Amino acid sequence: MALAKGEWHKLPLTLSELCLSSVLRCGQSFRWRASNPGEWTCALKGRILTLRQDDSHLHYRAIFPVAATAPRKDDTVELIRDYFNLDINLTKLYERWSAADTHFLKKAVRFVGIRMLRQDPWENLVSFICSSNNNISRISQMVDKLCTTFGPRLGEVDGHAYHDFPSPGELMGDGTEQSLRDLGFGYRAKYISTTARIVAQERLVGWLDGLRKVDYRDAHEALLELSGVGPKVADCVCLMSLDKAEAVPVDTHVWQIAQRDYGFGRGKHKSLTKATYEAIGDHFRKLWGQEAGWAHSVLFAADLKAFADVIIEEAKTEEVEKTTAKRTAARKVKTGNIREEPEEGGEGVKLDPASVDDDKKNGVEVGTVVERRVVRKAKRSLKLEVREGEDENVSLELEGATTLADRVKRRRRC
DNA sequence: ACGGGTCCTAGCGC
DNA sequence: AGCGCTAGGACCC
């Protein structure tokens, strides 16, 4: 099919309002491709959209299939404003969350511009049905196969074919489950085909999009009736496409964060039961306010292993803290005199008991911001020198290099 | 062997 | 007895 290659346009946008590479990689959407250095491309609502960013602007280019009918009006700028939720002032929200929560402040200084997308609900729903027991890399591959196999092909750019996301109707056929199994979806194949059938046949047209207009609790409850949709996936959809900024999806990562940094994991909330799940959401809503889900995604991104390069980058560019400071820190860790035990639900920094055990087993001091193997890998990818037997000092150097005065997270080999 | 859960069921307490 | 809640296992690659 012929393509109408569009021109580049731009709209003013600061980095504190949007950090494109973070937002497109932090596990909200799984379809954006790094099409060129600094460039991201995705098939979105009938066009192939490419984005890049500089200090002051977001640049965009849309490529449409040439339709037999009259040329459509190019609504790409409206699409972008909607998709990135650009009417929401993120900078102000960061200020509010930081004022309410010192732990948020500490994390957020290194992870600015992380905002919630306003995705298509159906794509969002199916993508997160895929997310169970899974990782971003494989989820992305699965979503890509789903689009390639079932979605309408828009065309080819730079030798790469782009397909739009398939509709419920395109996924409700009898062969869908088997096809998805053949594509490696595992037990999620049935969830997706069943959910597609429910949405296409047992719900009114526009039902899913219509959940944008009902309140959070009702939308959440409605989503739970679908197959493969539990509380966590329902919250992801509420937050990422149904305008429920207060929804806080609690997955294993957020559960870890809640235990490590917000005092959960003891007493009444020892394990992640339904009650604990709701208590965590309630705690964050009370702490951060109405847009708690937006705030949660900043901390979630800050903990993503894939974002370790942000920390590495800082290590490269900032001055490394002096050796004496390292030794002092290491000594403090060793004597254990910097341990803090916040009350449940209270704020403060606490050592994660699980990682303490692990690290002791491995003969490594407690508390780390990045796992050693992740650091090593990231260093390698940045062509930093990694000498044999030296890498265990990396995380210490990293911490020293950051402005973050988070002493608890330093570590050294015994 | 692990990874961004969901579903199902048995067992417990009230 | 019956319901609500929780823990544990299976599920695909």
TrEMBL record:
Cellular component aspect of the GO annotation: nucleus
Domain of life: Eukaryota
Gene3D superfamilies in alphabetical order: 3.30.310.40, Helix-hairpin-Helix base-excision DNA repair enzymes (C-terminal) (1.10.1670.10), Hypothetical protein, domain 2 (1.10.340.30)
Xref: CDD domains: ENDO3c
Region annotation (Disordered) ranges: 337-361
InterPro entries given in the database record: DNA_glycosylase, HhH-GPD_domain, HhH_base_excis_C, OGG_N, Oxidative_DNA_repair_enzyme
Assigned keywords, A-Z: DNA damage, DNA repair, Glycosidase, Hydrolase, Lyase, Multifunctional enzyme, Nucleus
EC nos: 4.2.99.18
Pfam families from the UniProt entry: HhH-GPD (PF00730), OGG_N (PF07934)
Record-level GO BP terms: base-excision repair, AP site formation; nucleotide-excision repair
Subcellular location: Nucleus
HhH-GPD domain ranges (all copies): 130-304
Catalytic activity, as annotated: 2'-deoxyribonucleotide-(2'-deoxyribose 5'-phosphate)-2'-deoxyribonucleotide-DNA = a 3'-end 2'-deoxyribonucleotide-(2,3-dehydro-2,3-deoxyribose 5'-phosphate)-DNA + a 5'-end 5'-phospho-2'-deoxyribonucleoside-DNA + H(+)
Gene Ontology molecular function terms on file: 8-oxo-7,8-dihydroguanine DNA N-glycosylase activity; class I DNA-(apurinic or apyrimidinic site) endonuclease activity; damaged DNA binding
UniProt function note: DNA repair enzyme that incises DNA at 8-oxoG residues. Excises 7,8-dihydro-8-oxoguanine and 2,6-diamino-4-hydroxy-5-N-methylformamidopyrimidine (FAPY) from damaged DNA. Has a beta-lyase activity that nicks DNA 3' to the lesion.
Family affiliation: Belongs to the type-1 OGG1 family.
Protein name in UniProt: N-glycosylase/DNA lyase
Naturally occurring in which organism (per UniProt): Tuber magnatum
